[in-house]
């Protein structure tokens, strides 16, 4: 049975009335009009008249008048209209029609069933029948004036063409140096000219969004994205975001959430703000999709003729192309460049509040402490043991109560009946909020799956964790990360103090857990990922100054593949990263300071992990 049979005639007609403008904005509507003609819904003469039009504006106007004529003259055939335009061959050609069909099928069309009363009386059928001809007269007058101007300037006039649906005259030919504009998919906007709006909130894009990546345009299916399936429709084929990014030639960015955009806004921002949801991948309840992009930047430097290292161009190591375009960096910020993470305290207990997770005092586990994610109320109860806390005043951000951030709209409290995924979270969603939404090691938010530790909030990509997490391990009831394994081992083990030489000369197979812990600690502390990846593709003339490049990911690969024999070899490579940093960035105090901080962290933790005696370390 046709699903449209479950909708009554008035609903279909009302829906048609509200969507005439949307359908008139379809790109290249001739196939659409041919379908209507083939089903005898519009007369041949009207089809020929509209299909001959060359101007895009005239074509839109002609399609709208045709639909208006159909509504006025043949309302009894409205069911046949929707049945014929919802055929697969037609909706694959026009994504807008797919949106309309989905809107009818899921019931979301009811937003437009209640219309204001008509203020002005309806025109008679006779006057309505003249609307199209009146528009033609106006256009004919306009074209006549243009013809006179051409004659006055000495150009040859096109005497035979007095309507926008005829062949264009000489004045419409391209001038030297002009480029013909490429045809672009046109999506209807409910806003007036000059107004701005977020199209991902428009009802017509409830199920599908127009997206771009480079020069390619496609349609993103929200449901498929949430389910982790191929969700981007391009040239009648479905692609994953990563595949579409590759197709657009943007794979070098390594982060489709930045390179794929909707109305100029990266998908990562829409996911972070709750407008889109990236679903979990197959592989068990411990595996979930990374939701939010990380802010990753580095500095590209060069030398002048005298050999002095100079700061060159800011470049993003992950999330943009190597040329360092600023537009990708802009995509990492909220509107107005507002912050996303805030350091908060309550009675001496510290944490970080993440704006993307914040909904209210009880909804959304938005505050991350060392060992858990909490809602604001849970954070106050944990810190002060209050049963009915005033979380807006008890939690402070940089000396100011949280209510101050709410009053100035830096944070937005969701309404009581809000239906977003944070406020209406089910049991599985609440369980999902207990872990980080990005990889602890690489800070990445790409299309790879994350595995969640059952003992702490950390999440990892399977190949970012040390050791790598195999699929077979995820079938077990519990999985805990190296941090938690190391912590449990330290609590039940006592080690004698060692001298530095004795510690580094040990076989690494006996100290593999300690080395894995130290390297993961460095990766997690490198928030901007300056030292994680190979710097040569991003920093000019790097190889000319640094003979032996080294980076954290390379050390991790060597550690994973058993390339080190002793602890000393591992330590030597880690220290090489810092020495290269100090040598190459001697003119960049910011990067130098980051390198010193990471080196100090490594040295201090190494002493603790290997029980290095204090007198030996100072000697």
From TrEMBL:
Domain of life the protein comes from: Eukaryota
PROSITE patterns under this entry? BROMODOMAIN_2 (PS50014), SAND (PS50864), ZF_PHD_2 (PS50016)
Record-linked CDD domains: Bromodomain
The chain positions of domain SAND read: 209-277, 326-412
User: In what residue span(s) does the Bromo domain sit?
Assistant: 530-592
Query: GO cellular-component terms in the record?
Result: nucleus
Quote one Gene Ontology molecular function term.
Answer: zinc ion binding
Ranges of biased composition (kind: Polar residues):
310-319
Alphabetically list the UniProt keywords: Bromodomain, Metal-binding, Phosphoprotein, Zinc, Zinc-finger
The keyword Phosphoprotein is assigned to this record = yes
Cite the PHD-type domain residue spans from the record.
436-487
Region annotation Disordered: where it falls in the sequence: 120-187, 303-337
Compositionally biased spans, kind Basic and acidic residues: 153-166
Query: Protein name, please?
Result: Nuclear body protein SP140-like protein isoform X1
Question: Which species is this record about?
Answer: Betta splendens (Siamese fighting fish)
Q: What is the lineage of its organism?
A: Eukaryota, Metazoa, Chordata, Craniata, Vertebrata
Source gene? LOC114860187
């Amino acid at each position: 049975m046709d699903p449209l049979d479950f909708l009554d005639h008035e609903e279909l007609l009302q829906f048609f009335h509200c969507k005439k403008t949307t359908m008139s904005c379809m790109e290249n509507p001739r196939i659409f009009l041919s379908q209507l003609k083939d089903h005898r819904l519009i007369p041949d003469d009207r089809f020929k008249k509209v299909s001959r039009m060359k101007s895009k504006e005239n074509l839109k106007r002609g399609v709208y008048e045709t639909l208006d004529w159909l509504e006025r003259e043949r309302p009894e055939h409205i069911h046949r209209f929707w049945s014929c335009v919802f055929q697969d061959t037609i909706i694959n050609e026009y994504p807008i029609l797919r949106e309309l069909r989905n809107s009818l099928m899921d019931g979301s069309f009811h937003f437009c069933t209640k219309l204001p009363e008509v203020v002005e009386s309806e025109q008679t059928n006779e006057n309505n029948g003249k609307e199209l001809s009146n528009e033609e007269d106006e256009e004919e007058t306009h074209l006549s004036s243009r013809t006179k101007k051409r004659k006055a300037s000495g150009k040859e006039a096109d005497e035979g063409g007095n309507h926008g649906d005829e062949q264009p005259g000489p004045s419409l030919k391209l001038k030297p140096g002009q480029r013909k504009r490429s045809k672009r998919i046109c999506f209807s906007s409910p806003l007036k000219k000059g107004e701005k709006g977020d199209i991902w909130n428009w009802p017509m894009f409830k199920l599908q969004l127009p997206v771009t990546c480079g020069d390619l345009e496609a349609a993103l299916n929200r449901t498929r994205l949430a389910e982790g399936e191929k969700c981007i429709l391009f040239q009648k084929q479905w692609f994953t975001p990563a595949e579409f990014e590759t197709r657009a030639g943007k794979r070098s960015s390594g982060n489709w959430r930045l390179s794929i955009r909707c109305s100029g806004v990266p998908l990562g921002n829409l996911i972070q703000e709750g407008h889109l949801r990236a679903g979990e991948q197959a592989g068990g309840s411990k595996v979930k999709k990374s939701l939010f992009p990380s802010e990753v930047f580095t500095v590209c430097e060069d030398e002048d003729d005298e050999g002095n290292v100079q700061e060159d161009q800011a470049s993003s190591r992950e999330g943009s192309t190597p040329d360092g375009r600023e537009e990708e960096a802009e995509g990492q910020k909220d509107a107005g460049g507002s912050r996303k993470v805030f350091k908060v305290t309550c009675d001496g207990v510290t944490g970080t509040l993440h704006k993307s997770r914040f909904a209210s005092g009880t909804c959304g586990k938005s505050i991350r402490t060392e060992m858990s994610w909490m809602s604001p109320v849970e954070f106050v109860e944990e810190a002060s043991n209050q049963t009915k806390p005033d979380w807006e005043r008890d939690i402070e951000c940089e000396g100011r109560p949280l209510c101050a951030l709410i009053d100035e709209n830096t944070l937005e409290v969701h309404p009581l009946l809000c239906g977003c995924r944070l406020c209406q979270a089910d049991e599985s969603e609440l369980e999902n909020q207990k872990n980080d939404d990005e990889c602890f090691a690489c800070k990445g938010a790409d299309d790879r799956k994350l595995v969640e530790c059952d003992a702490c909030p950390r999440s990892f990509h399977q190949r970012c964790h040390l050791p790598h997490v195999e699929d077979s391990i995820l079938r077990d009831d519990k999985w805990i990360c190296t941090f938690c394994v190391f912590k449990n081992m330290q609590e039940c083990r006592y080690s004698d103090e060692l001298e530095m030489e004795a510690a580094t000369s040990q076989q690494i197979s006996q100290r593999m857990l300690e080395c894995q812990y130290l390297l993961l600690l460095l990766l997690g502390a490198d928030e901007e990922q300056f030292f994680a990846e190979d710097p040569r593709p991003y920093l000019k003339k790097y190889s000319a100054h640094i003979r032996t490049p080294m980076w954290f990911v390379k050390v991790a690969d060597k550690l994973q593949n058993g390339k080190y024999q002793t602890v000393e070899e591992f330590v030597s490579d880690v220290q090489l990263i810092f020495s290269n940093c100090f040598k190459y960035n001697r003119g960049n105090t910011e990067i130098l300071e980051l390198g010193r901080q990471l080196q100090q962290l490594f040295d201090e933790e190494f002493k603790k992990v290997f029980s290095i005696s204090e007198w030996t370390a100072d000697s």
